[in-house]
Amino acid sequence: MRSRLLAALVSVLLAVSACGAPPPAPGKIKLGFSAWPGWMPWQVAKERGFFKINGVDVDLRYFDSYTDSLTALSTGAIDANSQTLNDTIASASSGGRQKIVLVNDTSTGNDQIIARDGITRVADLKGKKVAVEPGTVDHYLLLLALNRAKLHQGDVQLVSTLTDSAAAAFAAGHVDAVGAFAPHTSIALSRPGSGPVTSSADFPTSIPDLLVARADLARSRPDLVQRLVNTWFETLAWIERNPDEAIEIMARGAGVATVAYRAYQPGTTFLTKQENQSFFGTKSLQQRAGQVADFMVDAGLIPARPSLDGLFDDQFVNAL
């Protein structure tokens, strides 16, 4: 089977060199994403036709609830999803068979713990009500911050709710602090006097955002996954050349004003092709995953460290 796939890929390359464009590929990829700035380029790819240009038929599915996208991938309702490293490890601990095929970005400030007026540091959260979606990226950020402040989860009153509801509850004054990612941070910060007490900028490289595919798709149809990865980098190149038009598309997709979306830009750092290759090739991603897994076990987010063997698939970024 592998030799047939290699032969098929060679045929594709020959066809591309002969006619200047990839031939259409049979099959459709159901791709999930949520309102995180690092994943909104997928909306640009759809509206500008980059999926079609790369010969891949994509059913792009937007999830209001990020958690629902995780469930959709783990149950096979979608073929690939945009999700964080810690959430991918959580899926692996539950028996999920997935492959990390691309690092979209690292969070450099757009994940935040936001507190009310009078709370200016993480240590001040002791005994306070903190709304967060359990088990997801900003719960992880909260635990990282508490750990650095020599506090534990039990030192705060954790209010479990979905991220959008958590941001709204904080804005309405029902809790003292909230863990949220952009664009939900804009809702939280509408509360007068509020501000972030910590963010992902304080934990560099701790929150990589990924393209994760079902393991059986990466194995049986690597050509489709490759076209998806190619599309991502072509889209980023177009965004760099057309920043104003791109921001309009992404802001509209995220449901925020363009001025608000521009403010998110420093908080998300996109990785280049070369940085992706280095991230995989130097084992930096694998090492980070091991550290994240150990922390998640210690924090009680997962029962035991899962095997990470086979989770990382660098063939697609190396083929760019």
Automatic annotation (TrEMBL):
Signal sequence range: 1-20
Subcellular localization: Periplasm
Coarse class of the protein's main subcellular location: periplasm
SUPFAM superfamilies linked to this entry: Periplasmic binding protein-like II
UniProt family annotation: Belongs to the bacterial solute-binding protein SsuA/TauA family.
NCBIfam families: SsuA_fam (TIGR01728)
Protein name, entry field: ABC transporter substrate-binding protein
Organism: Kibdelosporangium philippinense
